[in-house]
Structures are given as structure tokens and as C-alpha cells.
Amino acid sequence: MGQAGTSVIVLLLTLPTLTPVPGPFGMVFGTALALVALQIAAGRETVWLPSALKRCRLSTKALDSAVRCTAPLVAWAEKMMRRDRPVVLAGKPVRMLLGFPNFSH
To answer: How do residues 40-66 score in pLDDT, each as one tens digit?
Structure first.
């Protein structure tokens, strides 16, 4: 999925860390999210995954369900974003900068 796949991976790793689930889920997903963020900060266009994860496939039914549930949200987000936004705000250097954690809190 290329760059869009990176966004999906970040989203999927972020959701479990935001929900108050007992156990080590936050630590596990947070660590994986940090590794992805480091790859983004290093300028990688796609996320490196171990070969065991690369071989995993989603079923068509699961993917169809996910698309159906998220389509209204994606349509709203696309409507809110402009296609002509400046490259300065959305280019590769900015994506790399966003990969670094914010330690100001």
C-alpha cells in the first residue's frame, strides 16, 4: 500500500494505546508505534516489517467490513482536506519531522 499503508499501520497501532485495556497492550503497541515513528523519521517511504508479518493476509470479509465502517469517516476527512495544500506542509521533510516524539509534556 506504500505511503497509505504507513498511515494505516500508524492508525492501527495507535488505537489500542488509546483504549484503557488492562495488561501490557499499551506497552506492546506503543513500542511498535515508536519503531514505526523511527522509520518515518529516518525518511523511509514504507514501513519495514518482519517477514512473518509480511506473509500475513487479511481476509476479504474483514477488509470489506473495515472499509464499510470507515468509509464515512474517510469521506469526511477528504472533504476537510484540500488537494492544493502547500508541499511545504505535507512534503517528505515534514513527514520525517512528525516521526520524532514530542517530549514537551
So the answer is: 888 888 888 788 877 877 788 887 887
Closest CA to 47 of 12, 86, 17, 84: 12
How far apart are alpha carbons 81 and 86 in whole angstroms? Answer: 12
| Geometric angle at alpha carbon 96, from 39 and 33, rounded to 5° | 40
Provide the grid cell at 93: 521533510
Residue 86 grid cell: 502547500
Number of alpha carbons in the 13 Å side-chain half-sphere of residue 23: 5
CA neighbor of 97 nearest in space, from 32, 43, 16: 43
Q: What is the dihedral of CA 91, 93, 98, 101, to 10 degrees?
A: 180
Helix ranges (DSSP H) in the chain:
3-18, 25-41, 51-54, 60-80, 87-90, 92-98
Longest dimension (CA), the chain: 44
